[in-house]
Sequence to fold (550 residues):
Amino acid sequence: MGKFKELEIEFYEDHRELELGSDKFFFVFSLWLKCYFSQISETISELSGFFDDIFPDLKGNECIWCMASAPDGISYNFSYNDRTEALKGLATLSNEDINLYFSPAIFTGWRTDKNASSINAIYIDIDDVDGRDFSEMSREDIKSWLCETYRIDESVLPDWVVASGHGLHLYWIVDEIDLKTYEGTELRRKYTDYLITWFKADVSCRNKSRILRFPTSRNVKNLADIKVTRLFRFSKPENKSIKRLDFFRCSDNDIEAYTSENIKRRAEKRKATMIKNGTWKERTEKHLQTKEGAEKQGVIQEKEKPKQKRVKPKIYSLAESEGHDPDEQKGNIPKQGTGAEEESQNNRIIKREIDTSPLPPKSRYLRIIRDLENYSARRHTVPKGHRSIFCHILAVYCKKARFSINKAERIMYKCIDKGFRNEADTVLKNIYASKTEYTYTNERIAELLDFKPYDLEHSYACYTAEQRKEARKKTNGRYDQKRYSEKRGDKKRIKQFRKDFIIRHTDMTAKELAKALTCSERTVRYIKADIKKEEEATTLFKLLDNDILC
Fold:
């Protein structure tokens, strides 16, 4: 086997989440190979000071999260548990034609706000300054521009500045902030809001898991105009107290006004980008064409066929199905066996049995799919207003469970009306063709589909904190029972082995037996006492048998 094949197998063993042979697999594998064969370069010495300030130390299971994105849209999130490896790997990847990002926060799990552990800097992102290309400006030019534009003194300038092209990332190094506590989170948010409002920066920096372009990496959003991200050190702070940022203090009204304005401007910018790329126009035209086509079709049908009176199927509440007055409690779970056959052929409700067959204990995706199927079966169909999001969630988890598109289509067709199958097909094909990894939390699924107490009570997955707590208790109970059972079995085997050994070696002393069996002399005496009792009981039974026979 060649060296390259061995490396490919080693990589695949550590990255099972990637589909073998896919574009994403080869993209991540190529980056892994570059880091594997890389040597420490001069770039690391330039970044070491920045790394020492942002990530002074990693403790326990803390890690640094990064993301690499190719120009064709393929992206991959990865983490480092070692500062040296992180510095070496990121310095190597910064020379490649990829968009490389990192998060200044330190995490104890996946890159989410909830898992952010600590941070050693307050940072902001000044994005898209019209008429300025910071990639061509010197350190002194950037410093002068900041002082003049934002009316600040050099004493409160940031410690590090990253010029990413048409924007700047500003970093103020502070004493470590514990993000696992409410006080630490609020402290970071307060001073981040001050800086965002003062510098008119991007409000998304309020997120603890925010990622920024990595210093010295390449900006390849436009392959015709690739820019290298530059790093400047403005000062080496002797005082890291966060109180020095009180200079930028703003009122709550100013913060709220700018935040609302920035969010609105970002939405307009996104719309302009979609219009420029043709996405917005395509969506609008498609919507209008669908609407006009439906209206024309409706007119033709009205001319060709006489108008028929449709009988809306009666929807029974859970209370009515149990014999209560439906006026007292209203729901949308129909009673089993209702006469809904009077609806039109296209939207006829198909009655199905609730699936109660057992599932493997560790199968979250299968359990969510089962709950979605039963959600539809209880109502005989998916209620209007929930059909689109239901199809999206079901398609996402069928893909995660590695179902074929044909199998996912069969499951979806069982759950929805015939009249909605065209829309469901579109959703399903888009999900399976997309490179985006969609996901939903269990709580979000229950919220979007408006799960009722009956759905939660008979669910297979856990959708509430109480359900998770109960499931964890059962899992721990099963694990403890298995562990204790194995431990008891081991003790019995060891005790039997020691007993057999002592019976075979009656000439050895208690001290010699304890040494040979790696136990205490007291244990040996206990085992000898048990052997003696068994022998006495055996002798007694023999005497009793002889008396009975006589």
Q: What stands out?
A: Residues 283-332, 334-349 have pLDDT under 50 and may be disordered. Residues 465-504 form the longest helix (40 residues).
